[in-house]
Predict the 3D structure of the following.
Amino acid sequence: MDDTAYYDFWRKHWIHAVFVLACAIAGLGIWLHHNRIATNPQRVFWSMVSQSLATSSVTVSSSQARDNDSVSQTLAFALGSTNAARSQVDIKQGDAQVVTEVIGTPQADYTRYLKVKPGSSAAAGKVDQSKLINVWAKGDPQLFGQALLGLGLSLGSVPVPIGQVTGEQRAMLLKEIRERALYQIRFDKVHKAHRDGRLYYTYDVETMPFVYVQIMKMFARDIGIRSLENIDALEYRDLSKITMQLTVDVRAHRLTKAVYKGGFTQTYGAYDVPVESTLPAKTIPLDELRKRFAGIAP
C-alpha cells in the first residue's frame, strides 16, 4: 500500500477506529469500577453473611491441640429446607484415643464408637470391645444444638449462621445482625492474600456472646430447630467479647476459615453438598452404650 492509498484508508475509517478505541476505554473503565466494587472488603464480608443464609449445607473441620492432647471434629450439616447433620470426633489424650460418629436429626441423635484405644493400661487393653465398636445408640438430639451454638466451645460451631431460610427471613436476620452490631470489624485493616490463584480477605472480628446468642436463637426459630428455645441470652450478658479472625474467599464470597484466641481453628468447605444421613435400623439406648464404654474407658 503506497502513501496515498494509506492516507485514503485512514481518512475513510478514522471515525470507526476512534469509536472502537473509545468503546475499549469505556469498557475497561466499567470493568475496573465493577472489580473495585466487587472486591470492596465491606461488601465482600456482608455478601458472605447474606450468602451463608442461603446455603443448603456445609462441612466444618475443627481442631484444637495442647501438649499431647488434641480434639478434632468434622461436622457436616444442612439447616433449613433439610435438617441433617453428621459428625466425627477424634479425641487423643496421650497414647489413648477415642473416635465417635454421630448422625443428628431434630428428633434424636444416633451415636457409635469407631475406635477406642485405652492407652497404656494392659488390663483395659484386654477388654472385649465387640459390644462397643460400631454399635449404634439412640439418644436425645444434641448435634443440632452444637451446629448452632456449640457444646463447650468458646463461640459454638459457626461464627455466622449458615443455613437456608426464606428471602424474607434472610432480610430480617441481616437487618438484626447489622442493627445489633453482631460483628465489630475494622474494614480498613483487612489482611489480603493470594493462594492458588484466588484472593482471600482475613478480617479481625469481635462479637458479644449476648448478641450472638440472640441472633442464633432467631435463626434456629426460622429453620425450625427448637433446641435453643430454653437458652436465656441474658445469661451471656456479662461475658467478654470474643475475638476471632475470619477468612473469606473474595470471588466466591464464602467463609473458608475461622481462628479463635486459644488456638481453636475451623475450616469451611463442601458448600451445598448433600449431607449423608441414613439412620441405623437397629439401636440400643445411649445410656447402655455409655456403660459399655465406661467399662473400658481409657
User: Anything to note?
Assistant: The chain has one domain: 50-269. Residues 3-38 form the longest helix (36 residues). The radius of gyration is 26 Å. The first strand starts at residue 58 and ends at 66.
